[in-house]
Amino acid sequence: MRWLPYGPDAVLVECDSLGEMSAVRATVTAARLPDVVEVVPGARTVLVVGRPGTSALQQARKAVEAADLEHPPGADPREVELPVTYDGEDLRLVAETAGISVEEVVQLHTGAEYTVAFTGFAPGFAYLTGLPEPLRQSRLDTPRTRVPAGSVGLAGEFTGVYPRSSPGGWRLLGHTETVLFDPRAERPALLAPGDRVRFRSVR
Amino acid sequence: MRTLEVVEPGPAALVEDLGRPGYAHLGVPPSGALDVPALRLANRLVGNDDGCAGIESLLGGLVLRARSSCTVAVTGPPVRVTVDGRPAGSHLPIHLRPEQVLEIAAPQTGLRCYLAVSGGIAADAELGSRSRDVLSGIGPQPLKAGDVLPLGEPQGIPTGEDELAARRPPAELVVPVLLGPRHDWFAEPAQQLAVAWTVTPESNRVGLRLDGTPLRRSKDGELPSEGLVTGAIQVPPSGLPVVFLADHPTTGGYPVIGVVAPRSLPALAQARPGTTVRFRPQA
Predict the structure, then answer these.
(1) CATH assignment of A2-66, given 3.30.1490.120, 3.30.1360.40, 3.30.300.30, 3.20.190.10?
(2) What CATH class does A79-201 carry?
(3) pLDDT, tens digit, for every residue of B69-128?
(4) Do B180 and A6 touch (CB under 8 A)?
(5) At B75, is the secondary structure helix, strand, or coil?
(6) Structural domain that includes position B115
(7) Does the CB of B189 have a partner CB in chain A at under 8 Å?
(8) Any CB–CB contact under 8 A between B262 and chain A?
């Protein structure tokens, strides 16, 4: 683990694995330090932003150094099930790349339990880890200019759902009707770091 | 309810307050006024709390009609402000009677003027803020002719002129930079940064895009997505840096060579295309 300076009011904690990153994120979040403004997980990092002129960053470091990262605070992860119609444009491509049938792709994707590692790209866009090995496939060579809202896709070690229509290069498996992000809702993002997710086939 | 009508929005007029920090882990940018001291001053001049929502007017051209009695103030770069065609001044409280028309001309320097109104603009808040975030499309829609803006209850007494005339932005900005977190991805990062950069017209509320001698990387490959802060200088494959402003993406995969000193952000937010920026890196 490395603590990298990031301007006067933030620090980037670089971790050795996704697991360590999740543990650091959970530890800093659970410490509920009043002067910590943001705790932003990435694929291998946790960005901690403090209120200017406070000791928030030192307190966060102390909390991480005192923690047992093998057993991070659970913070009662939410479990979310997303119903998916597996009719994506890249379903066949994913099956061919994996050397399996389309039905097996659906079985693999619905059979695994995923965890929200981090977010980004758009509000409510969650990068889910736990993708079975055969489905870990590269992005499309040419990204689409428009991917419809609710599209379920995969890229690299992640799977995820586009909360709204946008350009995108993930391989598309299907779509869900579930609303992923509503800025006026009490809980604006359905998926937050640490949440557990399963996909269920509705066709 | 007291209201204010938009007659002409000008090139762009957005409702902004101090933003919505604290939601970056959900992919939501902090947003908020780019020139925070200017919005705070405008609010103070009309007796509001600092956090009230005002209007961020890009390059003026904003025309408003009072539909109720209210007090307004315009801050930011020096700018001609008129009421019913008569000069009214900037950086001071102006009382408007119903049906009076206020016009903000185009500023001669800088980019963004801020208008505060007694009681603040009471548009619906999203995630605790009334700021328009142009990256995510969160917050009140950009203002258009005919919009009627609801106003909140006036809170305090206008405090009068409490700051000397607006600063004129210097022709060349000198910006202190703290190196890191990824300066080790570049050969001689301090020397490479400490040259003249030019603000390009592609700049917006997401980031200030700079032109100059492309920064050379010493390390190839990709960086797994990591968190970004306002003021981060990110270097995409072109080697031409982007200084992220309030509507920046929350994570990104290109290396951040350094972070500008927060006190420089208001001046960077007012930097017109063609402005020279000189970074002063420190370890």
Answers:
(1) 3.30.1360.40
(2) mainly beta
(3) 999 999 999 999 999 999 999 999 999 999 999 999 999 999 999 999 999 999 999 999
(4) yes
(5) strand
(6) 3-150
(7) no
(8) yes
